[in-house]
Amino acid sequence: MAARRVWGFLGGTTVAVALAAVTYNSTFGNVFYVLLYGALTSAAWLAMRRVPAGPQRRPWLLVAVTQTLWFAGDATELAYYYLAKVPPVGLSDVCWLGGYAVLTVALVLMARRRAPGRLRGAVLDALTLTAAAALVSWQFLIEPSLRQGYSTGASIIPALYPVADVVVLAALLFIALSPGTRQAPTRLLFGAVALYLSIDLITNIGFHFLSDGLVARAGSLIMLGNALLTAACLHPKRDELTRSSAQVRVLHPSRVLFLGVAFLTAPVLTAVQDGLAKNAVATLLATAASTIFVLTRFTLAVREQERAQAQLSHQAHHDPLTGLANRAMLTDEMDRGRPTGVAVLYLDLDGFKQVNDRYGHEAGDLVLTTVANRLSAAVRGTDLVVRLGGDEFVLFCPDLPAPDAIRLAERVVADVARPIPFQGSQLDVGASIGIAAYGAGEQAHERDALRAADAAMYEAKRQGRGRWVLATTLAA
Asked: Residue 393 in 3-state DSSP?
């Protein structure tokens, strides 16, 4: 689905959820709430069906199951209300708590697919932050609930909701702290889970300073969180949540800040409980100073390691002469898979060997770097320019129709043919280009397109210098 339609879906849902909140506790409002919740749950299943079958669909399947369980819980609670039989612990609690468990599994699956084998640091940092959140939750939510003195079920079940929130927060932090891109789908996911946790917090402590009606109206906003998750699934870039990314995650200053807050959570709570006695304050200040020094040293060490890692990663994925992407990066891009289609232009220089033999390697290097710059200037920002080796280049252009690929090839042929000044002389080379393209819905793969473009390039060479040939079929 196009991004514009996704935002339109969110806008319409926001208006509908606002209407449901305003009309809460009326016959119309309750009926509208159930119908809207059911429609959003159905939308989650339909969105999940749009994801190609396979491992990348499983997290979205679990997201749809989560929304179904929560919808069942709300519908059951509403039925209890109209039957005037609201039990302290009922089927609705089973559905709601089950939804938390399923959502946690979905988030963990996303984190594992985004950064397979690279989650150790993210998990350790996430558990550090989660431990601090668990301590606060125990202090202000869980332990007070267990102190109520009700029957076992009536006191334990309410305490399970803050526990579930902490577990979901941990799973979300696995994603937030793992390597990977952070575009619209990831932000939509973060917004949804943050909204869920905020609603639970209001539901748990809001009754101390808000009316029951306002607390219940805030609870209806859970449907907006469901809509955010569905929008993330419908977004054309949703694959960033379930596909491995080659991006190297750097240590952001906010990450160090959050870790520092986590380290100081226990001392702060202890100092507050001791009534801010002098000894407690002195201990807190000393702990804070030590934490700052340790984290500063930790940050400096990590930054040095990141610089070295970034340099190695760049060398592994780029050509040292031209600075273009190399075959390894092209392979990574092809392995991503693009349902919107791709165009591949396979380019071989005409006359390069003659230039190299006559003028030497210095002239040959100048030709290669100049051609690399001209190719980079000819493509879009989303395209990838690759030097495969020798005088062979590839233009990898996602979502580029065949007519546009042909126009790009014509421009490249003209650009490469421009003379290159060299020591008072001119170096002349040309380009033979093979083109292969396929669109959305066609049964093809980037590797098929690369092979077909390679074959078409050799056909262009047979026809003469400075030509392009469009592959009619993709090599199997």
From this structure: strand
